Amino acid sequence: MKSHSIAAYELPARVASYDADMDIMHPNRHKMVNVALEILPFQTVAAITALDLGTGTGFFTQKFLETFPEAKVISIDGSNWMVDLARARLATLASRVDFRVGDFRQLQDIVPEIALGDVAFSSYALHHLNHGEKVEVLRQAHRFLKPGGWLINADIVTNESKVIDARIQELRVDGIVRRGKTIDPRFRDPEWTRQFLNQLEATDGDQPLNLLEDLQVFIEAGFNDSSVLWSEYREVVIGGRK
């Protein structure tokens, strides 16, 4: 078997491994995507177009396409490797996805279409941006949407209070250890887990905003009716309309 064939064969297992990690660290993502899909005011048979900002392995896109079987998605991700994983996850659903590889900070160059989409969504991706970068990306997403289009972001935030934020981080680590200690040595105790998370966040360049700042980003980008649709500790779903 040729090397590229072996790699292709292993893709579903790699998706499963990535999902297993996410379920340990972010078990709420299932609920968050469900909330995001429930709020969208479209008939399930509507032939709508969506933009996925930071597709990753295609978790959100898969749920969206299953909910709206006549819809299509323009997928943006900066990693060819992630696009391969998304294709493996989506299987036949990938025929309704237009994959575009690039940095979503240059969204208007990757997706030059204006007023084409009905929805833009993102999950666990935009917290890699600072305030100014995030406003600009959302402005470009606003440009892509038709009047009345929706933007939904499922992501993480910090707390305005350092004391509360520290306590939330303790609860976060406790939860990861509880879910992962028997199946993954990285999460065997709070100290090891905290070291792993610190390294991961530094490598990924995480810079989440607090909740009030995140809402302000929506407003600065031009979205109306911006609101917190769901939240638990450091995870939130925020939506707004063009």
Short key terms for the protein model shown above:
242 residues; alpha/beta; 2 domains; seven-stranded mixed sheet; 9 helices; 7 strands; 48% helix; 21% strand; globular; disordered N terminus
Helices and strands, with pairings:
Layout: H1 3-25, H2 29-39, E1 49-53, H3 59-67, E2 72-77, H4 80-90, E3 97-101, H5 107-110, E4 117-123, H6 131-144, E5 145-156, H7 162-180, H8 190-204, H9 211-220, E6 224-232, E7 235-241
Helix pairs in contact: 1-4, 6-9
Architecture overview:
There is one protein chain. The protein is α/β, with parallel strands linked by helices. The chain folds into two domains: 3-157 and 208-241, Rossmann fold (3-Layer(aba) Sandwich), CATH 3.40.50.150; 162-202, no CATH class. Helix content is 48%, strand content 21%. It is built from nine helices and seven strands, in the order H-H-E-H-E-H-E-H-E-H-E-H-H-H-E-E. It has helices at residues 3-25, 29-39, 59-67, 80-90, 107-110, 131-144, 162-180, 190-204, 211-220; strands at 49-53, 72-77, 97-101, 117-123, 145-156, 224-232, 235-241. Helix 1 crosses helix 4 and helix 6 (131-144) packs across helix 9. The chain is globular, with a radius of gyration of 18 Å. The protein starts with a helix and ends with a strand. Mean pLDDT is 92; it is low at 1-10.
